[in-house]
Amino acid sequence: MFHLDAAFRRSALGGIIFTIKEKNMLRYLLLAVAVVLTSCATTAGYEKSLNSWVGAEEADLVRAWGPPDQTYEAGGRKFIAYASQRNVYLPGTPPAYQTTVLGNTVYTNPVAGTAPVDVVMSCMTTFELQGSKILSWSYKGNACKGKE
């Protein structure tokens, strides 16, 4: 169980000492907060937004989204694509240390902890046009989300 008195346990260097169980609880709490904060944005919300562009004029889309990142034509149709990418850095957690004394020798080893992770978040959205009217859309990526 997570104890609030953990904030008062300090190491000799002045840092706060948490047990491994308490560190895991903090990790789960941070994960839950992140899920709640991002739960409003969904792919369904993004699709709803994209559906609102079907039948619209290309000029209106360019006014709202800016110049496309790619434009190409095939089979008498025009395709315009918008791309976004960002990196999200998830810092690791420092390990706890366990000290063992065997005879006259002291061993200190790291226990638990996690490595940092760099996650690439991207979204590529393509609109298909005939003339200047938007006919359809498609998207791919792990960051294609919008509010519902």
Q: Keywords, please?
A:
148 residues; alpha+beta; 2 domains; two-stranded antiparallel sheet; 3 helices
Structure notes:
The chain is α+β, with helices and mostly antiparallel strands and 148 residues long. It has 2 domains: 1-39, no CATH class; 42-147, no CATH class. The chain contains 3 helices and 8 strands, in the order αβααβββββββ. It has helices at residues 20-38, 43-51, 58-65, and strands at residues 41-42, 70-74, 77-90, 96-102, 105-111, 117-130, 133-140, 146-147. Strands 2-3-6-7 form a 4-stranded antiparallel beta sheet, with no helix packed on it. Strands 1-8 form a two-stranded antiparallel sheet. The chain has a two-stranded antiparallel sheet with strand order 4-5. The chain is elongated and about 85 Å long.
Topology at a glance:
Elements lengths: L19 H19 L2 E2 H9 L6 H8 L4 E5 L2 E14 L5 E7 L2 E7 L5 E14 L2 E8 L5 E2 L1
Antiparallel strand pairs: 1-8, 2-3, 3-6, 4-5, 6-7
